[in-house]
Predict the structure.
Amino acid sequence: MVQLLMFAYASQHLVSDVIEERTGKQALALAQSIASDSYLISAMEVGEFPYELAERYDKLQRDTDISFIVIGDVNQIRIYHPERDRIGLPMQGGDSINALQGQSYISKAVGSLGPSIRGKVPIINVSGKIVGLVSVGVLQESVAQATSQQKVLIFSTGFFLLLLAVLSALWIAMGVRKKLFGLQPDEIGRLYVEQEAILNTVRTGVVALDTDGSIRKINHRGREILCQSINQDVTSLQDILPQHASFLLSDTNHAITGFELFANDQWIVLSRFPLQVQGQTDGLLLSMRPADEIEYLSRQLAKVQAFAELLRVQTHDYSNKLNTLGALIQIGNYDKALDLIGNESRGFQDQIHALLQKIESPVLAALVFGKYLKARELTINLEINPDSELGNIEDKHKLERLVSILGNLIDNAIEAVQRSKNPAGTVRVTLEEVGNSLLFDVEDSGSGVDQAHLDKIFRPTFSSKRGAQHGVGMYLVNTYLKACNGSLEYGDSDLGGARFTIYIPKNSEVYTEDS
């Protein structure tokens, strides 16, 4: 508003100067035109001013915006004046000397009619002699009226622009406030500071992304987890997770939770959620934390749940056997009851003993035994290859990876059998050491893997099963294999289904993304 008023004030002064300059030029131009009139020059030479000439200049003055036309001789005596009673009197203003010296110019002076802007031009005959002068002027009062009219226009326009600016500002402010949910600037500033404080206080790494992978926001914890230094300049997901950026930016409408990957020399657990704005995916949110004590507790909980499932299966199995045992006792067939107890005890003891003999690692043996009981409840025969033999594994990090790899492969095989035409089929597991490598071989009697899906099974968003929890199992297997420097081969099993064979160097160490 202040700027608009200053502009209007400066404009009216500029307009006043322009009007005065234009008026002076018009007066000078008209004076030059009159002074070049041959009829006037002849009249000035003979010293007589005809009536017809006076009438012509009267008409010229009426037809223009000129206030007066005055013609004087070399002695500055008026020969023509619009006021006839002033003819013969000296010209006033004191600004005619230079014209009688041959100059044409614009001047300001006070004459008999009042202050005016004048154009002064000498009358020169054909021989070059000055025989008089012409003074054409516009009264300052007329100039002031023209200037006032322009001032009114300027201030009216300024007021209209000011009103338009105020209304536009109100309209824009309403729109902005609607976009900002009615928050005032100080409230927005406070929310921004609070958001920064919250994001940098939580112990979970948070990264907000555009759908093209550009980083909108990364909190302090996220930099600690993913960056080499807190001050590292990162602009895109490719800068912090180069090996996983492509799949994290694919299928952005699909949420991924609890995804484990290796980055910045450590294992982290990452979740991805789409950011929805008015029903459209506007970006992605990644949350992550290192696989430290919290993840350890989560794994412990998973183990407890697995043991609970194992106990449930055994409870169901033993419930049937106890019913049979009770019936034998009730009918007095004690020998059969004793035989049933002995066979059951020897059966499980033999299985446990065989597993511990073939698989020296208690964790892997427990895993295989748990899967055996799970398959048994589902009426699926899980066979342990009698040629299996695996020594103890000291590296606990590698052991955790092997448990995940083997567990995922056996679960996939059991589910493949369930989906097949013969849901009471067979799963065969082989664990052995071949030269310098560990070998895991898992076969099933399912329907196998469609050849068209072979290049897709390691994608986290691909699954042949239904449900939100599926789709990352084989991707995790592939990720853990890379961490252990291992490899995977796929083939057809003589059981009729798929066969997955894993090779892992016995002495390999977990590699980093930069190795």
